[in-house]
Amino acid sequence: MIFRRWRERRRNLPSPDELLPPEGVALTLPIAGVGVRLGAQITDIIITLVAAICVVVLLLALDITGPQTIFVIGTLIFFLIRTPYYVLAELAWNGQTLGKRLMKIKVVSHDGGSLSAHAIVLRNLMKEAEVFLPATLLLTLDSASPIASILSLGWITVGLLVPIMDRYRRRLGDMMAGTHVIHLPVPLLLKDLASEAPAYGEKKQKFKFLTHQLDHYGAFELQTLETLLRSQSNPQSSSAAKQRDATIEAIVERIRKKIGYADPVPHADRVRFLKAFYNAQREHLEQRQLFGDRRENKHYAQSGEET
Amino acid sequence: MSLDRQDLSGTASGTLSPQPGSSGNGGQNGNGQELMRSARFRQEREADWRRLEWLVLEAERKGLQRMGFADARDLASLYRQATTSLAIAREISLDKALLAYLEALTARAYLCVYAPQERLGGLVSRFLSHGAPQAMRRCWFYVLLGFLCMGLGVLAGYLLYFENTDWFYVFMPEELAGGRGPDATNDYLRSVIYDQDPESSGLGAFATYLFSHNTRIAIFVFGLGVFACFPAALLTFYNGLGLGAFYALHVERGLGFDLGGWLSIHGVTELSAICIACGGGLKLGVAMLFPGDLSRAESLRLAGRDAVKLALVAAIMLIAAALLEGFGRQLVQDMTTRYLIGWGVGGLWLAWFLLGGRSRR
Fold first, then answer.
1. According to the model, what pLDDT value does residue A183 have?
2. Based on the domain organization, do A222 and A143 belong to the same domain?
3. What is the domain range of residue B230?
4. Which domain holds residue A33?
5. A307 assigned to some structural domain
6. pLDDT tens, position by position, A222-237
7. Quick check: A40 pLDDT over 90?
8. Quick count: other Cβ atoms within 10 Å of Cβ A173?
9. Structural domain count, chain B
10. Phi, psi of A107 (to 5 degrees)
11. What pLDDT is attached to residue A98?
């Protein structure tokens, strides 16, 4: 009961992927999951650890440190390397460390504003408190003090649980600094289907659709058809091609039946028919949308009656 | 025939002329038909989007600071145009590929335009000159509470020891006492205070002391503050108990003044750091317990700004204390000098907190 109410409330919240920049047009920036971030974190730890080990070996070679203090000095040098590394890397690469660049994720300001240096410093110092300090304690403590070991272990667990429970997958440091981590989107402009599709068939006959024939589908169906037509250009093996032919035939027949398109579509013309239908349908739906009649999917008529 | 035309139209729309505003082949497709509205919309703006895409890549590669003036200006204005395009496209276009592209392009450009512009050096000097002392003054009450927890602990430990010396074993962890206890001889206690062991000085000692008992206490005291203040206050009090009992042991043997010097040289700084860390923890705990009109997360975030500054101050002080302990304590054997250094450094901290970051009038 309580769980269901909680889920209801969660559903009513805006999507966590949305970010509102000062320009006021919401952008979709998908939240990076815990796994990806852990991967980036491990990469960064390996990089800084290797650097620290190099320095320690150098110190040993120069005879500055002895074997009895090697562990504490190593810890100190690791600390002195990794803390500036995170802050400087995120400042220099605009919210990305090397590990984050590898995983193609990025820190952004939670409120959509500019990412400030203060936020970057704060979230990385909190990383020290959240992860590294308890981890160091866990390593340096011995079995003589089990309470402290359990405490630091509990601390790390809580630190890991916080991002799992949070909608935005934020660490405690992220919450304090007001940041979260997103996947970097890749802009890829595909060809506009509407600018190339022919309205003619093989024998130069024109596919014509009447207005009532275009009233059956909504945006969802249109965009599904778009995806199918786009995948058309990918080269495929013969068996896959055969399967795709069958799919296209089924779709063409389905559409013809649904919209009541009387003329039979010959085999060679099927894709052209679909493209022509896509064009006509998109033009029609976009026109309806301009008049305030937004059709999400083919059930638009029913949902309109309900509201 | 129609196939050829299709190919032609494909290449025509793929290689648009780069001038913005020139709409390729006059808003028509290869078949000589008028394009639909959303396709025309795209055709008119595509060149600008391509340029923005290139500018974004450039900015990510080189950084905004190293871009030419014209490029940086174009990046900002094209980004704003792209947000407008995105808003319009969401209304008029049902082309999924176009929407996804614009969405990604605008997001990438947004990340470039709103990149951090500050320098790190300015941030550090600002923290040292205003941020930290102002935060200390804002949180004076919590810091005072931290000192109070420690002070009461010392007092309780001190009095309890004189009631029954066995309390020493309860309060003082074995490994910390290092053989010093009610059973130890006077000479042994004195030898620890005035020990001149060159082996335990220098970098190794510095690192060892930095990760010593008190640093752990400071970290725990700060971190545990979030859990409703209680553990932080308790741990500080417990730490004070140990200290009180330890001091009482030396007072009983007539070594109180000497121990004071031994502790002062780094202890003034180190114990203050623990109390300040405790103050930061208490601040977080109070924000958790009494969020007022805010949500708990929001209240914690607001309190966190000052609390983190307190923690940073404590960290700086702990490092200074480790330096004093690692180098100073072995080199300076004279009692008065020890007092002088310890309390002198303490006075410097106090001056920083009280006088730093005040605006001149």
1. 92
2. no
3. 121-355
4. 2-183
5. no
6. 888 888 888 877 767 7
7. yes
8. 23
9. 2
10. -85, 135
11. 92
Query: Tokens at residue A270, please?
Result: 């099927």
Nearest to B107 among A29, A194, A279 (CB): A29
Residue A35 within a domain: yes
* B165 and B286 part of one domain: yes
Residue B37 phi, psi dihedral angles, 5° rounding? -55, -45
Same domain, B103 and B133: no
Q: Which of B113, B129, B159 is the last residue of a domain?
A: B113
Residues B143 and B240 in one domain: yes
B157 found inside a domain: yes
Report the domain count for chain A: 2
Q: Distances in Å between the alpha carbon of B250 and those of A301, B198, B247?
A: 89, 25, 5
Which chain A residue has its CA at the smallest distance from B98's CA? A189
Whether the CB-CB separation of A114 and A170 falls below 8 Å is answered with no
- pLDDT 10s digits, A162-194: 888 888 888 888 887 888 999 998 888 888 777
A36 with A172, same domain?
yes
Which residue among A135, A158, A183 closes a domain? A183
Of A73, A94, A140, the CB nearest to B203: A73
Residue A148, min C-alpha distance to chain B (Å): 9
Q: What is the mean pLDDT of chain B?
A: 78
Residues B53 and B176 in one domain: no
pLDDT, tens digit (0-9, with 9 covering 90-100), for A289-306: 888 888 888 888 776 555
Question: Are B184 and B323 in the same domain?
Answer: yes
Name the residue type at position A35: G
Establish if B248 belongs to a structural domain. yes
Using the Cβ of B320 and the Cβ atoms of chain A, whether some distance falls under 8 Å is answered with no
> Crossing angle for the helix pair A133-140 and A70-92, nearest 10 degrees?
170
Query: Which residue, among B44, B78, B95, B319, would best test binding to A if mutated, counting the most A CBs under 10 Å from its CB?
Result: B95
Apex CA B178: angle with CA B189 and CA B336, to 5°? 40
A231-290 pLDDT, tens digit per residue, is: 877 767 788 888 888 888 898 888 888 888 888 888 888 888 888 888 888 888 888 888
pLDDT tens figures, B309-350? 888 888 888 888 888 877 776 677 777 888 888 888 889 888
With a cut of 70, which residues of chain B have pLDDT below it? 1-34, 173-179, 181, 183, 192-213, 228, 329-330, 360-361
Who has greater pLDDT, B55 or A64?
A: B55
Which residue in chain B has the smallest CA separation from A194? B39
Task: Mention every residue, 6+ apart, whose C-beta is less than 8 A from residue B57.
Answer: none
> Do the beta carbons of residue B346 and residue B269 sit within 8 Å?
yes
- Residue B10 inside a domain? The answer is no
Which domain-ending residue is among A137, A157, A183?
Answer: A183
Question: Residue A228: its pLDDT value, please?
Answer: 87
> What is the interface pTM, i.e. ipTM, of the complex?
0.84
Distances (CA, A) of B284 to B206, B273, B299: 30, 17, 9
Q: Do A108 and B111 touch (CB under 8 A)?
A: yes
Report the residue from B13, B91, B103 with minimal CB separation from A185.
B103
Q: Is B117 exposed, middle or buried (0-12, 13-18, 19+ CB in 10 A)?
A: exposed
Tell me if chain A has a CB within 8 Å of the CB of B60.
Answer: yes
> Cβ A189–B46 below 8 Å, yes or no?
yes
Q: Which residues of B touch A200 (CB under 8 A)?
A: 2, 31
